[in-house]
Amino acid sequence: MAKAKKYVYSFGAGKADGRADMKELLGGKGANLAEMTNLGIPVPAGFSITTEVCTAYYENKRKYPKELKGQVDAAMVKMEKVMAKSFGDPANPLLVSCRSGARASMPGMMETVLNIGLTTKTIPGMIALTKNPRFVWDAYRRLMMMYSDVVMEKAAGLEPKEGQGIRVQLEHIMDQVKRQVGAKSDTDLGTDQLETICTQFRAKVKEVIGKEFPDDAQEQLWGAVGAVFQSWNGRRAISYRRIEGIPDEWGTAVNVQAMVFGNMGDDSATGVAFTRNPATGENAFFGEWLTNAQGEDVVAGIRTPNPLNMATKSEHTAHLKSLEEVMPATYKALAAIRNRLEKHYHDMQDIEFTIEKGILWMLQTRNGKRTGTAALRMAVEMIREKLITKDMAVTRVTPAQLDELLHRILDPKAEKTAKVLAKGLPAGPGGATGRVVFTAAQAVAFAEKGEPCILVRKETNPEDVEGMRAASGILTALGGMTSHAALVARGWGKCCIVGCGALKIDAGAKTLKAGDTTFTEGDFLSLNGSKGIVYAGQLATVDPDPENPTLVEFLKACDAVRVLGVRANADSPHDAAVARKFGAEGIGLLRTEHMFYGEGADVPLFKLRKMILSNTVEERRKACDELYPHVKDDIKGTLAAMDGLPVTIRLLDPPLHEFVPQGEAKQQELANALGITLQDVRKRAEDLHESNPMMGHRGVRLGVTYPEVSEMQIRAILESAAELRAEGKKACPEIMIPVTCSVNELKDQQALIVKVKAEVLKKYNLKKLDFLVGTMIEIPRAALLANQMAEVAEFFSFGTNDLTQMTFGFSRDDIGTFMPDYLGKKILAVDPFQSLDQEAVGELIKTGIQRGRSVREKLKVGICGEHGGDPASIHFCHKAGMNYVSCSAFRVPIARLAAAQVAVATAGKPAKKGKK
Ligand code: PEP
Ligand code: MG
After folding, report:
1. 356 lines ligand 1 (CB under 6 A)
2. How does DSSP assign 564-611, residue by residue?
3. Average pLDDT value for the chain
């Protein structure tokens, strides 16, 4: 006969059936109780009923597998032996607790019943055993309150009206007795009063629920087990699972364990502790405890708990006695367990303990939750202590925690109580607070006065750039994650929220409305750009430490682990220096057009406009010649700043109309400067107008129709490299051709490159000049014909902003109008401009890489769309076999971490190809 399935796992007296790695079956709590028992740590004996029983219970019309009863009985006998007491025995009664325990921690979402086994028959025995009648009646009233609420009401599906639940009614009885006898708190109640309360409770339960309170230990036990399983499908637990993404099928285990009591007098106590400080990460045993109390008293904050030891007393707790002082021997034993657990679990533990009549018992251990600062410090210090390897350390800090440490943020304490005004897309990280302004000029004026401001716009365009730079934060009603405002803000590491559709902005009237509230210029707003939350008022902020040595050390560990290279998108010598400071290993995208925006761009922009307004090829060539020194200075400066690291320089991409001024005054100014008429400027602007510029005359199409413009840029790149070489410096340029869809476009531009190269070699008297020629892959056709593209291209860089736009057919600049509904209705799980759509865009990328490398085995492949800084997308890039990701400089540390984490997660499963 096949052996019956094992549904019950015992633990106690140094031996357990389970282990820490059996969380799926025993839940987190059960698995760790078993592990601690096996380690010889004192744990009250007990048993875990597996999560499989929970699943079977729900699949089988709420019936248990038939073998369960026998297995529970046998486990109970074992437990009785270890504890030298018997469950339900009037003379020597054992009391047990019954607690839930899922695979993932679901704090407070499911039920617990304590003191099970107290009945009219066992109460006298308990009193004789403890010689403490007050304690026993108090334990009985606690059992009645918990059990009638959890088992008799909630699990039975009763739904009393608000305030009519059995627990509330029992609390009224207790309050009444307290009033009658003048007792201030529960602890002032005497034995007789508690006994009276229990009698009244019994009658009330019968009256309200219509059933006697069970007076049989076995009935209590099975009632409690059933209630814990039922609570897996309670409303609280279901909503928590939805939020945390915990699957319904996991089920919970049930842990039945011998009760130990911290409330048996002054030689008893209970406490919770962390093996290191969870707020700062300091390697100091940190916790709280209370004498003569039950665990819930510490957690519920009914009494102010005492500090665990002398070293961690604060100014608020200095006058309170620590466990170290009051029970030095027990504290020593607890501290030894702390060391043991950390060594064993290789991580900071969150523990619960109880001291019953001077004897220490451990009730729980689990990996403790921690702040970003603490996570970082612990990871680094544990490497130094040789407690963990670098591979383990990089998994201990989440990208969101790292983000917390890199930017000024709103003070989390202030955020808790602040009024949320609206929500938008988290386009630029960190926090900002300042006065509302509605135009770029106002932002500059405020900044000059030293007054932080938030630039509020319906959407931004390149003409707003100086104001965006000057503002502390940027807020727009329209736009998506790859819209102009988002892109520019991220590049500067500036706090920015876009697509905040709930805002009604009237720049003319200088008002901003959100619901019923209206803001005018000068009112205060605060932004959480990492989460996309807008608050009314001026919230406090917290600054990062730019030189944080712990962060530097941690990121070095990430670098040692990762395979994927990390570059930055940077557009100037200054950006390049910032990128290197953050650890970028090259520039993956230099958008040449950015030299025409913002501070100091007046002269090159004027010359570019002159070029755009040229009527003939000759005129354009002349304008190009004038523009040339500016372009070359910028490129040469950036190549020099990167000191031999690769720099991918993209030829001009945006449609030219973006550079022509729109307002009449500015058009007139330009006409005057060029010595032409306003009509000429206007006509040219009209000629350049496109109904769909994102799919218009941009990218390589500009290079095809205006080869002299490409030629000028190619020359600037190659002459920069040649001059740097002559100066004894290193330069590693990569010429990148954007928005291509056919290899013939590449051949067309390649011919120009060959011609210019020959001229440069001659001019500088060189035999060779090292550089690469590649293309962006940002049109589906190019991805599908990657084998053809790779005949010319020596590298691919996936421009996933445009590739996403063209694959979905969503305009990247105005998805704000419908994306919230798409996400709200779950049509899409995430905004594909924030996190790469792995299903379709990802398929194009994989196809592109595979086809590209089928003709050019060593083809270098990277990504330079905004997804290059998104952890989930970085994981995809690693698995797809890319060589590098490129993202804004401020996201480089996060990319280094994400790349290390995916390397660890896929260890043993090497990425297809691709090395830094
Ligand atoms: C892209 O399309 O992903 C890209 C990087 O180019 P841009 O955002 O400048 O269009
Ligand atoms: Mg693009």
Report:
1. no
2. SEEEEE--SHHHHHHHHHTT-SSEEEEEGGGGGSSTT-HHHHHHHHHH
3. 92
Report the nearest-CA residue for atom 3 of ligand 1: 799
Q: Cα–Cα distance between 486 and 395 in angstroms, integer?
A: 29
Separation of CA 628 and ligand 2 centre (Å): 24
What are the tens digits of pLDDT across the range 242-280? Answer: 877 889 889 999 999 999 999 888 899 999 899 998 888
Mean pLDDT of 227-233: 93
| Banded pLDDT at 489 (limits 50, 70, 90) | confident
Extract the tokens encoding 372.
């970003």
Which one of the listed residues 198, 558, 741, 864 is annotated catalytic?
Answer: 864
Distance CA 65, CA 61 (A): 11
Q: Is the C-beta atom of 869 inside 6 A of ligand 1?
A: no
Residue 725 has pLDDT above 90, yes or no: yes
pLDDT score, position 915: 43
Pick the closest to residue 150 from 107, 114, 104 (CA basis): 114
CB of 865 within 6 A of ligand 1: the answer is yes
In sequence order, what are the beta bridge partners of 541? 410
What is the structure's pLDDT at 70? 97
Helix or strand run (H / E) with residue 456: strand 453-457
Range in 249-263, 291-305, 366-380, 863-877 the model is least confident about: 291-305
Residue of 776, 806, 812 best suited for mutating to test ligand 1, as the one with most atoms within 8 Å of CB: 776
- What is the CA 491 to chain-centroid distance, rounded? 20
**How far from 211 is each of 206, 392, 451, CA to CA, in Å?**
5, 54, 69
Question: Which of 190-204, 538-552, 707-721 is predicted with the least confidence, judged by mean pLDDT?
Answer: 538-552
How far away, in angstroms, is 799 Cα from ligand 2 center?
5
How is residue 354 written in tokens? 């109880």
Tell me which of 54, 98, 407, 484 is the catalytic residue.
484
CA nearest to 583, candidates 600, 570, 598: 570
Amino acid at 525: L
From 653, 803, 811, 873, give the residue whose CB has the most ligand 1 atoms within 8 Å, as the site to mutate: 653
Nearest of 660, 605, 655, 598 to residue 631 by alpha carbon:
605
Ligand 1 centroid–CA 390 distance in Å is 34
Q: How far apart are the first and last CA of the chain?
A: 58
- What residue's CA is closest to ligand 1, atom 4? 799
The answer to whether residue 301 scores a pLDDT higher than 70 is: no
Regarding beta strands 306-307 and 286-291, do their DSSP bridges make them parallel or antiparallel, or are they unpaired?
Answer: antiparallel
- Mean pLDDT of all residues in 626-646: 96
To the nearest 10 degrees (0 to 180), the angle between helices 191-209 and 133-147 is 20
C-alpha 839 to ligand 1 mean position (Å) = 20
480 lines ligand 1 (CB under 6 A): no
Q: Which two tokens stand for residue 554?
A: 């941690």
Mean predicted confidence (pLDDT) in 161-169: 89
Residues 568, 591: contact at Cβ < 8 Å?
no
Active site residue 867: no
CB 409 within 8 A of CB 431: yes
pLDDT at 913 over 70: no
Mean predicted confidence (pLDDT) in 572-598: 92
Q: What are phi and psi of 397, to 5 degrees?
A: -120, 130
Output the CA 590–ligand 2 centroid distance in Å: 12
Q: How far apart are CA 32 and CA 365, in angstroms?
A: 6
Determine which residue's CA is closest to atom 10 belonging to ligand 1: 802
Share of the chain above pLDDT 70, in %: 97
Please check the confidence at residue 117 and state whether its pLDDT lies above 70: yes
User: Does ligand 1 lie within 6 Å of residue 778's CB atom?
Assistant: yes
Atom of ligand 1 minimally distant from the CA of 569:
5
User: Is residue 574 among the annotated active site residues?
Assistant: no
pTM: 0.84
Q: Which atom of ligand 1 is nearest to the CA of 797?
A: 5
Element housing 779 (H / E): none
